[in-house]
Amino acid sequence: MDRQRGLKHRGRDDVRPVPIPPTLVEILREHIAEYGTGQDGRLFRSERGGVVASTAYTEVWQEARKLALTPAQVASPLARRPYDLRHAAVSLWLNAGVPAPEVAERAGHSVDVLLQVYAKCLGGQKDVANRRIDDALAA
Q: How many CB atoms lie within 10 A of CB 139?
């Protein structure tokens, strides 16, 4: 059964702008120049132009993992599902020092939800925090 689900807590016709870094804009523009878009604007579509079935994504994803990862990593939960990349990206942004409100906007979360879900990924930052506080006090 192939079902479609809209955005959580949003109406069917609602849209949400998602800011992306310039590097990704360049990649997407190259993709569109080479492959175009579907009639409905989709970047990725089936051979007949429709929605790509979740089973197709899963098959391709599993093959890509085998090519990109070591055998030990393939056997691990690392990037087991494409959705795991979302968690990896949000964790990366937070650990890179992107402010929580900006990360929340990009991820489509409230700051409260973002911190409830991702606070655990911010461990090991005491030295960085202390250095930033020292720098701010010295200014």
A: 5
Distance CA 24, CA 28 (A): 6
Q: Judging by beta carbons within 10 Å of its beta carbon (0-12, 13-18, 19+), is residue 69 exposed, middle or buried?
A: middle
64-96 per-position pLDDT tens digit: 999 999 999 999 988 899 888 888 899 999 988
CB 88 within 8 A of CB 81: no
**How many whole angstroms separate alpha carbon 87 and alpha carbon 76?**
16
Please, which pLDDT band fits residue 1 given cuts at 50, 70 and 90? very low
Reference 99, options 113, 88, 114; nearest CA is 114
